[in-house]
Write a structure and sequence with these properties.
The protein is an alpha+beta fold. The chain has one domain: Gcn5-related N-acetyltransferase (GNAT) (Aminopeptidase, 3-Layer(aba) Sandwich), CATH 3.40.630. It has a seven-stranded mixed β-sheet with strand order 1-2-3-4-5-7-6, sandwiched between helices. It is globular and about 35 Å long. The N and C termini lie far apart (29 Å).
C-alpha cells in the first residue's frame, strides 16, 4: 500500500479533487454547493493517491489570520488506511518554514486526528453547513 501526496498542478487533477469533495461533502454530508466551492482560486490544492488511485484531497488557504488547512476529504473506500494522516502531514510539511498561524475548522468527528498532529481546540464549538466544528490551532513542537 503506497500513499502519495502532491500539490495539484493541472486541471485534470483539480477535477479529481473536486469529484472527491463532491462525493464526501455535497453528497455524503449534504453540504451546500455554494459553500463548498468558495475560495478555490486562492487555495493550494493537494491530491492523495493510494496505490495510484485518487483517494483524498485537502487545501491550504492564506487568510488574514494565517494559513487555514481545509477541505480534508477521503473517499469512503480509502478511509482508515492512513490517507487522512498523510494529508495532514503533507500540508504541515508544506508550511514548515512559516511563522504564521496555522489553523483549521475541524468537524468534531475529525478533531482527534488533528489533535494527534498537535492541533489544539480554541474557543467554543460552532456550526458550519449543519455540522458541528471546533477551531483548532497548530502548536509547533
Amino acid at each position: 500500500m503506497k500513499i502519495e501526496i502532491h500539490k495539484i498542478s493541472d486541471h485534470a487533477e483539480l477535477q479529481q479533487a473536486w469529484a472527491i469533495r463532491r462525493e464526501v461533502f455535497v453528497i455524503g454530508q449534504n453540504c451546500p454547493e455554494d459553500l463548498e466551492w468558495e475560495f478555490e482560486e486562492e487555495s493550494i490544492h493537494f491530491l492523495a493517491k493510494l496505490d495510484g488511485e485518487a483517494a483524498g484531497t485537502a487545501r491550504i488557504r492564506e487568510t488574514e489570520k494565517g494559513f487555514k488547512l481545509e477541505r480534508f476529504a477521503v473517499l469512503d473506500k480509502f478511509r482508515n488506511r492512513g490517507v487522512g494522516s498523510a494529508l495532514v502531514q503533507a500540508l504541515l510539511s508544506e508550511l514548515n518554514n512559516t511563522n504564521k498561524l496555522i489553523y483549521l475548522h475541524a468537524q468534531l468527528t475529525a478533531a482527534p486526528l488533528y489533535a494527534y498532529f498537535g492541533f489544539e481546540p480554541r474557543g467554543e464549538n460552532f456550526w458550519e453547513a449543519d455540522i458541528e466544528h471546533v477551531k483548532m490551532v497548530w502548536q509547533k513542537s
